[in-house]
Amino acid sequence: MLVWSKFGRTKSRLLLDGTRRSLVVGIAASLLAGCASAPSAPPSATASPESPPEYVLGTGDRIRLTVFNEPSLSGEFEVDASGAISIPLVGSLKAAGVTQRQLEQEISTKLSAGYMRDPRVNVEILKYRPFYIIGEVSKPGEYPFRNGMNIISAVAVAGGFNYRANDQTVLIRRAGQTQEYSYPVATTTMVYPGDIVRVAERLF
């Protein structure tokens, strides 16, 4: 009887351990399924104002080009609808999709090819292309971008949330992306030129 009693207790413990393992596995699977159900922001989705990603030029940006000791080549230029700028001696040059430093290097290379020896080139952004905010805000529309803008200041520019708004998360489609991602309404969620911010309606 003692042997059977010990066997019974051992069997009960094994069954209990098996039930606990199944429960843990089930909870983990549910959590994973919940995470996969909504698109989360990519790794570069949020950034502190102190460490913004390097800016990429796009249509609507206006730059000041300075070629040192060559005032006739310097001036202000806007990236047109085709993503290009037209510069004396250089001609039409693709600007959309590159950084300031990359554009400087490209212009310098072009000027070095038979025009100038060791040109010194500087590109400065004078005006950024706008961002857009739609959905449940008081004044949806197009707005000028300002350096250091985060989602809270962007919503404030658009008159704030309306009474239907989900004020915990927003959906943002970054310039050049085809999908929008969910971001928290926090000062660490930055807004960049060309972004489309959508404020959804709250569920309850």
Automatic annotation (TrEMBL):
**Gene3D superfamilies noted in UniProt:** Outer membrane lipoprotein wza domain like, wza like domain
PROSITE patterns assigned = PROKAR_LIPOPROTEIN
Q: Does the keyword Calcium apply?
A: no
Chief location of this protein within or outside the cell: membrane
- List residues of the SLBB domain: 131-199
Pfam families reported in the protein's UniProt record: Poly_export (PF02563), SLBB_2 (PF22461)
Keyword annotations for this protein? Cell outer membrane, Ion transport, Lipoprotein, Membrane, Palmitate, Polysaccharide transport, Porin, Signal, Sugar transport, Transmembrane, Transmembrane beta strand, Transport
Domain Polysaccharide export protein N-terminal per the UniProt entry, residue ranges: 50-125
**Membrane topology designation:** Multi-pass membrane protein
The record's subcellular location field reads:
Cell outer membrane
Regarding protein family, the annotation reads: Belongs to the BexD/CtrA/VexA family.
Per its record, how is this protein called by name? Polysaccharide export protein
